[in-house]
Each structure stands twice: as C-alpha cells, then as structure tokens.
Amino acid sequence: MKPQTPPDLPTDDLFRHRLENLIDTRHELAKLAALIDWEFFDAQWGEAFCENGRPAIATRLIAGLHYLKHTYGLSDEQVVQRWAENPYWQYFCGERYFQHELPLNPSSLTRWRQRLGDEGMESLLSATIDAAIASKAVKARDLKCVTVDTTVQEKAIAFPTDSKLYNRARERLVRLAKAHGVPLRQSYVRVGPRLLFKNNRYGYARQTRRMRRTAAKLKTVLGRVVRDIERKLPKQSASVQAAFAESMALTKRLLDQQRHDKNKLYALHAPEVECIAKGTAHKRYEFGVKVSIATTNRSNLVVGAQSLPGSPYDGHTLKKALHQVERLTGQRPERCYVDLGYRGHDVDDVDVFKARQKRGVTRTIRRELKRRNAIEPIIGHMKNDGLLHRNYLKGVEGDAINAILCGAGQNLRLILRYLRIFWLKIQPAFIQYLLLAPPRAA
C-alpha cells in the first residue's frame, strides 16, 4: 500500500510538549527542514506501491533518515539509533512530539532502496539542488556552468589475493554442503587454514617460491572439493542443485582465470568489483567501480553522480553525465570543464573546455577553467565526510545508489554550513541594531 501520512492533529497533547517548543528553531537542521519539499517524495515514490496491503512507512521519514545517514557518514543501524536520541533529527524527519522508540527496523531502509532503485534515489539528490537554490546558498545561474570528473568508489572487500580467494571459496562450498546434507570425501577444514597461514608468512618474508607453492596447493584443494561436489550433485534434489549453482559458477570462474585475464573475480560476495589503476604512488590499484561526479563550477554543488560499471573511457561517459545533470536540474548546462582524460568526447551541444586549453579561451572561461580543480577537494570530502570511500551496498545497483546518495549528503553539508555561517553573521548585527535603534514613540 502507498506510504502513510502523519495524521493532522487538531489539538495538542496535554501531557507532551511539541518538538518545536523543545528545540531552537534557528538551528540549521530546523531551517533545512523548511527548505525541502517533502511532498515531492510522495509524488515521485507513490508509483512504486500498490493500493492494497499494509500502509508503508512515511516517505518523509525514509528520506530524512537517508539524508542524515549520508550527511554524517553513518550506517543504517547508527542513524536509526541516533534518531531516537536527537530531537533535531526527529523534527527534521517530521515528528511532532519526541519519540523514545526506534522509528523503524534498519532493514527497512534496505528494502526501500531495493524497491526504488537508483532512479528513485535520484529524487533525493534533485531535492537537495532545489533546497540549495531556495536557501540562496547557490544561485540559479550557477547551474549553467558545471565541472565533471571521475573517481573510484571502493567496495567493502578485503585486498584480494589468490590464496585468500581459494580458501574462502572452499569454505563457502563446505558450508553449503553441510547445510544441505551433501556428504564430502574430505572438507580440508584444518589443511586450508594452515596453508593460508603459511602463504601469508612466506609473502611477508618475501619467499615468493614457497608462497606460490602453497597457493598452488590451495588451488588443488579447492579443485578437489569442486569435483567431489560435482559427482554428488546429480543425486540431489533440484532445490539443492539450485542452492549450489551460484557458488559453483563463481568457484569455476575463479579456478579458470589466469594472471593477465580481464574481468577477473576479486571477491566472492561482490563479483561486480573491478580493479582500477589510478597511477598514484600511495595506492596503485583500487577495487570497486568508477564513479562520475558533476558539480557547479562556481559554488561546488553536486548536480550529478552516477556509477560507471565496466570502467569505460572518461570521454565516452561525458554525454551520459550531462544528461543526468539536465534531468536533475531541469536545464542543459552551457559550459562544461573537464580534465585531459576526457579528450575525444562525443558532446556537441555543450561547450566543453579541457585543462590546459588555450584556443578559444576568454577571460571568463580562463577564470572558470582555474576553478575546475575545485572538484578534487569536493570528491575528497565525499570520501572522508561521507560514504564514498567504501560502499557497503550490494550489487551493481547498490553502487549506483550509494554514489547518488553521497552527492545528496555533500549538498546537505554545504547547505547546513551556509545556514550556520549566515546566522552567525546576521545575529550580532541584529542584536546591535536592536540595541542602537531609537525607541518608538508612544
């Protein structure tokens, strides 16, 4: 059933105080709550629900919890726990009275993300853009000039090595066999961890020959378990065979891959992870997915964020990034600034200026071209202050959703900072005006 709306209470509760009487309404979160169009989510997300069944959770609560989660870089469990302790967060999510119980189970946020998908989550990013313009933290004319760049959104996986992957695959198959009653000739429960321990010690001592030898033994042990299961699976029921299908396919892919193969398997629980070389000295490779970020050139507002599975060439992703900016802001950018990685792009209807460009550069464009580097610290803030540094959401769709929500969290931090600084500036001037103003005539 469609999400429920809070009842409109005509009278106050005599035994409880309203939240607006408990908090400081001049607080930046209270001001931000008035700037966001919460009814917009009812219109956008209502189509994902049917007319029958139990009413869903209010959309303002879901949107507010996602905003708070990515603004302060928290997990689903942490944001729900802190919501029950913070009256400002409850007021931001539309509560009238202070609540002492948890608003929902943290797993409800996961089910909402799965139901809405990345297209539904774009509504959260679009609402932050409108709120930034309404708060005057960003001017509407800033949307005409954008900066686009790419980064890597790392996945929540351990550093992949062959030995760890072989042992983890064996453990998964043995666990499945034990759960479904498939007898194994040998499970290698003691042999596998012992070989992995030796492999790690040999690698630390830089004894590469012994390390490769133990890795080969781990691969041999995994192959024996796979062949043993293949011999006994035909005698099992169809449901048991279906339970083994995904794990067996991933294990065979792991056994068949070679050193120089493309699309290698780096994590069994996240087979979509890619290895992306960044060319930096401190971190040569990052394991995750490439993400495109678009910001306004002048005010650094995030107006586009999307994942790019397959690690495509940057120049081939520019058209898609500009289409998303147009979809979220409602207008096509006039100028776009990129780095040298976007050479060979296929965008014709927007003026694209690359770094170090000299031809056709006016004084205004030269000034905006210098501002292109400002997107780098914005990406750094999205990783350090937000959740872009490591994605815990599952699958390719989880990568896209996390990138979009990280952009929304960065916009809210920008708006909150503006509201906080703006009030600190006008408060002393307002008090001074009250003290120096002449008294009114009676």
From TrEMBL:
Under the heading InterPro entries, the entry gives: Transpos_IS5-like, Transposase_11, Transposase_InsH_N
Q: Which organism is it from?
A: Nitrosococcus oceani (strain ATCC 19707 / BCRC 17464 / JCM 30415 / NCIMB 11848 / C-107)
Any Gene Ontology biological process: DNA transposition
Superkingdom of the source species: Bacteria
Q: Where is the Transposase IS4-like domain?
A: 278-394
Which Gene Ontology MF annotations are present? DNA binding; transposase activity
Q: What is this protein called?
A: Transposase, IS4 family
- Provide the Transposase InsH N-terminal domain boundaries: 18-115
